[in-house]
Design goal:
Layout: H1 22-26, H2 35-61, H3 67-84, H4 92-108, H5 111-116, H6 126-131, H7 141-148, H8 152-163, H9 169-175, H10 179-203, H11 208-212, H12 214-223, H13 229-237, H14 239-249, H15 256-263, H16 268-274, H17 276-281, H18 285-295, H19 301-309, H20 339-351, E1 388-393, E2 399-402, E3 412-415, E4 425-427, E5 433-435, E6 441-448, E7 451-456, E8 470-472, E9 478-480, E10 486-490, E11 499-503, E12 512-515, H21 526-535
Antiparallel strand pairs: 1-4, 1-12, 2-3, 4-5, 6-7, 8-9, 10-11
């Protein structure tokens, strides 16, 4: 007897048969000769996702002009092209929205495009987006890292239920999943997302104390209980851990703001406010209360937390040196009232900008203090999305460069910072540090006995995948994934010093500051660099003229 089909969701996603997942609709785009089938898929995918994507384009542009439709169409074209080349169509909505944001930023940075599309020049739109030092706010770095590390199905469920405020049947339909299975997967996704934030806090910790307090911070917030006094003192002076506490506190209520701000950054709050599901169901507080009552002991902790915070006075920002003994205070400490947790969280709220990285709110993008200056050590890191950068060593004030021509096995060195291609890199979401001079080559810290050379970029699951991948601390340390007790450093502080891996000591010599590559007429191609080297005259002591 054939197995009956599971019941279809009562609220199918708009566009097409509710039994057709986004991934099944994308399959004909991947090399299918049947043009009509592919056209059918494109039409249905656009019908499902067009309106929210267009809404976000209007928000990013601060304009409802026709250019919003142009950006939306371009975002679909780029995203569907990636699907045709094999990218997964699961969690398609956030991918489309990010493409909208990146398209506007790219177009607004091109003077020729901006000249013919004046809507890109608005300070609250394209021009402001282009000027932002970082799209993701510093106080959302852990959530961004954790969300991107989730399986695609988990990202789809969290995005549509928490951000879009859709009924569960909508992402279930987009995934081709039974709603009962989707419900269980959603709860698992929330737990995995939270654990990812905790893991990111530990892995990116700027100091050993931050890493030590990882679980002492996580467990009380999870249980809604008490914090030890020394944890409170640490948070009073550690911005990194205050941001972590604030992000973890969101898991006691709706996750929509946290996820939207981590993924979109620019215009996230306004996008949340534009969602029809939010206007019809408030802030999804009923669902949060149901979940809290069923799993966490009742009450809507998220709303109550914010009401309590508003009544608690601000504790001092600095702690006397005499009280800064991280571990000694652990002995003999008794229970603390639940108000301590709220006291700690209001410290975080004082520096919280609402997660917006756009001029409509307070701009606290990573790497800027709001005045255009660079953030102090310990608060800045490399961009998490692919983007060309130059890496300046904080100790030597010199840049990471390639020795001789870029090829397999070429060594790396420190050099005076310039616009040559060999000093240009992209740090990608999967941890690859890729050379712009030859995009097939990445930094390899395991190929030559600890000397950092260029090696072939490897897939993440390849045997040597960790050899060419690095994790970033908030201080700018590059930790090779094959042994994160090590960090990239130079053999000395002078030009031409070799780049190696050393035991991590958190010194300036192991800290790399990302900076944009200046665009000048004097930028040299690889061939031009080689010609220039051939013309140089060697002087005594290795100097050249």
């Amino acid at each position: 007897m054939p197995t009956p089909h599971p019941p279809r969701p009562p609220y199918p996603p708009p566009g097409g048969d509710p039994g057709e997942s986004d991934e099944s609709l994308a399959a004909p785009l991947r090399g299918s000769p049947e043009g009509e089938v592919a056209a059918h898929s494109v039409a249905l995918l656009m019908a499902r996702h067009w309106q929210p994507v267009h809404d976000y384009a209007v928000i990013c542009l601060a304009s409802s002009a026709k250019v919003a439709a142009m950006v939306t169409g371009t975002a679909f074209h780029r995203t569907l092209n990636r699907l045709a080349f094999g990218e997964s169509a699961v969690a398609l909505r956030p991918a489309l929205l990010v493409t909208v944001r990146d398209t506007i930023r790219e177009w607004s940075g091109d003077d020729r495009i901006s000249a013919v599309l004046p809507a890109l020049q608005k300070p609250a739109g394209g021009r402001g987006l282009r000027a932002a030092t970082s799209i993701t706010p510093e106080n959302r770095a852990l959530a961004e890292r954790a969300f991107q590390a989730l399986p695609a199905a988990a990202r789809c469920l969290l995005w549509h239920v928490e951000v879009e405020a859709d009924p569960l049947s909508v992402p279930a339909g987009l995934l081709g999943m039974d709603t009962d299975i989707a419900s269980a997967a959603l709860e698992q996704a929330r737990d995995t997302f939270r654990e990812g934030c905790v893991h990111a806090h530990r892995e990116l910790a700027p100091t050993q104390d931050c890493r030590f307090y990882n679980r002492l911070l996580d467990v009380p917030i999870r249980r809604g209980g008490t914090l030890l006094p020394d944890v409170q003192e640490h948070l009073a002076e550690c911005r990194y851990c205050r941001n972590a506490a604030e992000q973890l506190s969101h898991f006691e209520g709706p996750l929509g703001p946290l996820i939207a701000e981590a993924v979109l950054g620019w215009g996230a709050r306004r996008y949340l406010d534009s969602r029809p599901g939010r206007s019809s169901h408030g802030t999804r507080g009923g669902r949060a209360g149901r979940r809290s009552g069923g799993r966490r002991g009742g009450g809507t902790r998220g709303d109550g937390r914010h009401r309590l915070l508003s009544r608690i006075p601000m504790p001092p920002r600095r702690v006397p040196d005499a009280l800064r003994s991280p571990r000694a205070l652990l002995s003999g400490v008794g229970a603390v009232s639940a108000g301590v947790l709220a006291t700690v969280l209001i410290i975080s709220a004082s520096s919280y900008d609402g997660g917006q990285a756009d001029p409509a709110g307070s701009n606290s993008a990573a790497g800027s203090d709001g005045t255009g200056s660079v953030s102090p050590p310990g608060t800045a890191g490399l961009p998490t999305a692919p983007g060309v950068t130059r890496l300046r060593n904080a100790g030597a004030d010199l840049c990471l460069d390639i020795r001789d021509l870029p090829k397999e096995g070429s060594a790396t060195k420190l050099a005076e910072c310039s616009t040559v291609w060999t000093q240009q890199w992209t740090y990608e979401d999967d941890g690859l540090l890729r050379s712009v001079a030859d995009p097939g080559l990445c930094l390899d810290s395991h190929k030559d006995a600890g000397v950092v050379v260029l090696g072939t970029c490897a897939d993440e699951d390849a045997e040597r995948g960790d050899d060419v991948r690095y994790d970033l601390t908030v201080q700018g340390e590059l930790l090779p994934r094959w042994d994160e007790r090590l960090a990239l450093a130079a053999t000395h502080d002078d030009p031409d010093a070799d780049i190696v891996v050393k035991v991590r000591d958190r010194s300036d010599a192991q800290r790399w500051q990302p900076e944009p590559v200046p665009t000048t007429a004097g930028s040299l191609s690889i061939e031009e660099q080689e010609d220039q080297k051939a013309r140089q005259v060697t002087l005594p002591h290795g100097r050249t003229a």
